[in-house]
Specification:
Distance between the termini: 48 Å
Structural class: alpha/beta
CATH class of the largest domain: Alpha Beta
Number of domains: 2
Number of strands: 12
Mean pLDDT: 84
Largest sheet: 8 strands, parallel
CATH superfamily of the largest domain: Divalent-metal-dependent TIM barrel enzymes
Number of helices: 12
Shape: globular
Order of helices and strands: HHHEHEHEHEEEHEHEHHEEEHEH
Oligomer: single chain
CATH topology of the largest domain: TIM Barrel
Radius of gyration: 21 Å
Helix content: 40-55%
CATH architecture of the largest domain: Alpha-Beta Barrel
Strand order of the largest sheet: 3-2-1-12-9-8-7-4
Length: about 325
């Protein structure tokens, strides 16, 4: 208990010190918000009512500032293996990206863990199950659960230009669409529906694919530009997907990158891949390769260094420390861009 009281005392001092400088010291604000939460629990019973009220007010103000801000810097796609590390680390990522499907259907420890993470970090949801290109109606239950998961709205929701289910079952994969005008209108209309229902901006990601679908009438870049413009959506630029698709199709990766609607880029993904015979497979199971880092540098020259970046290492998950090395490398590249 002594350790808790000591930590709470230090926490309160930190919180009190930074309240006037919320806008200028965001990282300190995050720490202070956590600090105020901890100390409120300790002093509420023992301290004068005025002090307890001040602590709670500071908590509310700091938390509101933190949870409403837009992601900045370099974050990680959070895996279960890293929940405890993310909560405990003094030098964690700048923000977290989560698959909301991993939290929406659960209460208990899973939901408490999410709330604890949300107290520490700015979190943005990256969905994999909406199936924007699919034939089944959008799930009202899914959208309601997503809204309930985030009592304070996130900066945006991101999803994929793909389909992941039909009327009967989910495929647990992201499958490509034909680059056709009909598919363009279909995806854009459903993305608008999601944006209007949730009252959130939506970002759409370019996926990896291993064959161009029959019925395609457009290039991938023209198709994505049409979808994003019609949906009034931003681009979640997955640089690894660009590289994998280009190599598999025998296209220059730089040309493939600059054919995309980069002017709409609002977030970037970086990940690893592996070779399987003559193909590269986008498996998110290794460090970001040098070729993808190089393509990332080229992208920054066009989209600027303020766009938030997420490292995806979701299979053969490394230690938290190793993952943070990837975060550091991304920051170094951004700093010299």
């Amino acid at each position: 208990m002594d350790r808790v009281v000591k930590a709470a005392t230090v926490a309160w001092l930190a919180a009190a010190a930074v309240v006037p400088a919320v806008a200028a010291a965001e990282q300190v604000v995050v720490a202070a918000a956590q600090a105020a939460v901890a100390v409120a629990q300790v002093v509420a019973a023992a301290a004068p009512a005025a002090l307890a009220a001040a602590v709670l007010a500071a908590t509310a103000a700091l938390t509101e500032n933190r949870t409403m801000r837009t992601p900045r810097g370099v974050g990680i796609s959070l895996r279960r293996q890293h929940y405890e590390d993310a909560l405990a680390s003094a030098n964690g990522p700048d923000f977290l990206e989560v698959q909301p499907e991993n939290f929406m259907a659960y209460g208990g420890l899973t939901r408490r863990t999410f709330h604890a993470l949300a107290e520490r970090y700015c979190i943005v949801p990256h969905g994999v199950a909406l199936s924007l290109g699919g034939p089944a109606p959008l799930s009202a239950d899914y959208l309601r659960s997503l809204r309930e998961l985030f009592p304070v709205p996130p900066a945006w929701l991101s999803e994929h230009v793909a389909y992941a289910a039909d009327e009967q079952e989910a495929f647990h994969d992201l499958l490509p669409l034909p680059f056709s005008y009909a598919a363009m209108d279909h995806v854009a209309g459903r993305a608008r529906q999601v944006r209007q229902t949730l009252e959130l901006p939506i970002l759409l990601e370019n996926i990896s694919y291993y064959a161009t679908m029959p019925g395609s009438q457009l290039s991938e870049g023209a198709f994505l530009r049409g979808v994003l413009e019609a949906a009034d959506a931003g681009l979640l630029l997955d640089v690894n997907n660009v590289y994998v698709n280009a190599i598999n199709q025998g296209v220059d990766p730089s040309a493939a990158l600059f054919a995309l609607p980069l002017e709409r880029t609002a977030q970037i993904h970086l990940a690893g891949h592996r070779r399987h015979g003559n193909l590269l497979l986008d498996d998110h199971g290794s460090a970001v390769p040098d070729a993808v880092w190089s393509l990332f540098e080229q992208a920054l020259q066009h989209v600027g260094k303020a766009v938030p970046v997420v490292i995806e290492w979701e299979n053969r998950v490394p230690s938290f420390e190793r993952l943070m090395q990837e975060v550091s490398r991304a920051k170094e590249i951004i700093a010299r861009a």
